[in-house]
Design brief:
- With 333 residues, the protein is an alpha/beta fold.
- The protein has two domains: 190 residues, Isopropylmalate Dehydrogenase, CATH 3.40.718; 133 residues, Isopropylmalate Dehydrogenase.
- The chain has eleven helices and twelve strands.
- Strand 8, helix 6 and strand 9 form a beta-alpha-beta unit.
- The chain is globular and about 55 Å long.
- It starts with a strand and ends with a helix.
- The structure holds 1,4-dihydronicotinamide adenine dinucleotide (NAI).
- The site of 1,4-dihydronicotinamide adenine dinucleotide has 21 residues, from loops.
Length: 333
């Protein structure tokens, strides 16, 4: 069987780490027909949008996409291609697992948590306007429908993956209505899954607890902005952004896999980026495609290379290149 998969190489370090992930998938023996399409700044110049329709239709047709990071200009310019893609494809859940990796120096030995980030609303609505010069209003949109959907998903995820507890992260002490609604929906979802533990934690206290005692967390579910920030924090706990994969899952059957990290312009084009985050994202993609054995091989190969410690990219304290890391993982397969 040959799978059709949309490949968005992205920009910055995107093309380098995407090539690495494609090579690893090919080395597993899973046959993939890659449909390469571009999104981001270059498309704005050509098509007037960072996400041309052909990108969306390719993912809808293939139902699976592997995506490199895409740069979003800060403060000015076009809207995020990443946010646009997630919205246009209805990819409402962003699953970001972070667990301790063998051989990677980090402060904790036993982190194994999953951040489930609501992907479709919150402050990412992009609704901002100048009320009067010097005063800006930025809208945080929270709906019962989206909170119910992510709440149910978090408990389903916990059940399917034999997880024991869901922590709902919020700021309902201040945003009593918006985050209050989020909590209300989460409590309802928790009542429907009595076999899974449930707790609530205010986002600032969560940050402190993640830094002091991350081993206490299991599945964590939260709104878009908190999820964006706390998942980077989780990456830091296990050795950095070079290691954490993610999956964007939707109701329509489409799914998009990408690293948690961005386009890392500071190291782009130098063949020194760590390709592991996107390689593990490709592993999550294989799992999603029910290629369980090959997905497990990818994860095991990464773990083996990391625990041997001979090949390490700069972010992991070594001087190996992206290509050398990729070659080592393929050899370990
Ligand atoms: P970033 O994640 O690109 O980089 C943060 C730091 O981590 C940098 O020092 C970078 O060198 C390092 N880093 C990231 N990935 C690495 C890897 N694979 N190997 C080694 N080191 C790595 O975050 P930043 O700088 O805030 O964002 C850069 C651009 O990426 C922005 O335009 C942002 O909007 C975009 N971005 C895109 C995302 C996506 O496509 N899903 C996600 C996050 C950011």
């Amino acid at each position: 069987m040959t799978y059709d998969v949309t490949l968005i190489p992205g920009d910055g370090i995107g093309p380098e780490v995407s090539e690495a992930a494609v090579r690893v998938v090919e080395a597993t023996g899973v046959s993939v027909n890659w449909h390469r399409v571009d999104a981001g700044a270059e498309c704005v110049a050509k098509y007037g949008t960072p996400v041309p329709d052909e990108v969306v239709s390719s993912i809808i047709n293939n139902r699976v996409a592997l995506k490199g990071p895409i740069t979003t200009p800060i403060g000015v310019g076009f809207a995020s291609a990443n946010v646009m893609l997630r919205k246009r494809l209805g990819l409402f859940a962003n699953i970001r697992p972070a667990h301790t990796m063998p051989g990677v120096k980090s402060r904790y030995d036993n982190v194994d948590l999953v951040v489930i980030r609501e992907n479709s609303e919150d402050l990412y609505s992009g609704l901002e306007h100048i009320v009067i010069p010097g005063v800006v209003e930025s809208l945080k949109i929270i709906t019962e429908a989206a909170c119910t959907r992510i709440g149910k998903y978090a408990f389903e995820y916990a059940r399917r993956n034999r997880r024991k507890k869901v922590t709902a992260v919020h700021k309902a002490n201040i945003m009593k209505l918006a985050d209050g609604l989020f909590l209300e929906c989460l409590r309802r979802a928790a009542r429907e899954a009595p076999e899974i533990g449930y707790e609530e934690m205010i986002v600032d206290a969560t940050c402190m607890n993640m830094v002091l005692n991350p081993e206490r967390f299991d599945v964590m579910v939260m709104e878009n902005l908190y999820g964006d920030i706390l998942s980077d924090l989780a990456s830091g706990l296990i050795g950095g952004l070079g290691l954490t994969p993610s999956a964007n899952i939707g109701e329509t059957g489409a799914a998009m896999f990408e690293a948690v990290h961005g386009s890392a312009p500071d190291i782009a084009g130098r063949n020194i980026a760590n390709p592991i985050a996107l390689i593990l994202s490709a592993g999550l993609m294989l799992k999603h495609m029910a290629e369980f054995e090959q997905a497990a091989r990818v994860e095991a190969a990464v773990q083996r290379v990391l625990s041997e410690g001979k090949v390490r990219t700069k972010d992991l304290g070594g001087d190996s290149t992206t290509t050398e890391m990729t070659d080592a993982i393929i050899a370990a397969l």
